[in-house]
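Please check these two lines:
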Amino acid sequence: MQKKEWMLLLSLALVAAVIGATLLGQAIYKSFSQSAQSTDNVERTIIPAGSTWSFNSNDPQNDRVNDQGASYHYELGWSGTMEMTVLGARAYANVDALDGDVPENLAAQMKSGSSNDKRGLLLVTLRQKNIDAASDGTILDSSNNPVLNAYVFYVPNAELVYFSEATHPDNDHDYFVYQLEPGEEKTMVLGYRYGQLDGSTSNQPPTAMTPGFDGQFKPFELQLGTTLVEGES
């Protein structure tokens, strides 16, 4: 075999090896991604914005099994039945978009913050009614009293920073805890910062709330019906 023919065959073999390795890598990555996604693949119930969602701690559907066969139990920190209704949501793309609907103290805090913070602000107005529920004792305030906690109103990829029903300063341990007696209802406003701190990627406003604590599987999705308010970039 001549040298040129040998070099040609060697080149073709190297190309085939590279292509084979690439395809194998893609197959492995795809398999891993599907496995990672399916770990949390639990059937989710969608509740449209404006509709009332009733959570009963004794509902059998609070116990779920995902497609990997893992069992999950869903709880929100109370025993009994609570109702929740998303009344509206407004997303402010940046500080310049803030308007009169933003609580004064929250607006002042954002305007006095770092100019490098490019995150948006999401305000969710939510009505919660206690039918016959009580804290299950898993959440305690700094005085060891059973309470409810606003962190249960989880919005993916957003940080809860404001709670209209707070009775403590915003840097206090108990800022996000509250009480809601049976038969009582509250209309509350929750504020979230969303998007990248430096604005390096498109800060799309959240469109849903998935009640539950961080790290917990969340089988319900409350749509927010988010209205975007844009200001100067």
Observations:
- Residues 50 and 86 are 5 Å apart (CA to CA).
- The radius of gyration is 24 Å.
- The chain is about 20% helix and 30% strand.
- The longest helix spans residues 3-39.
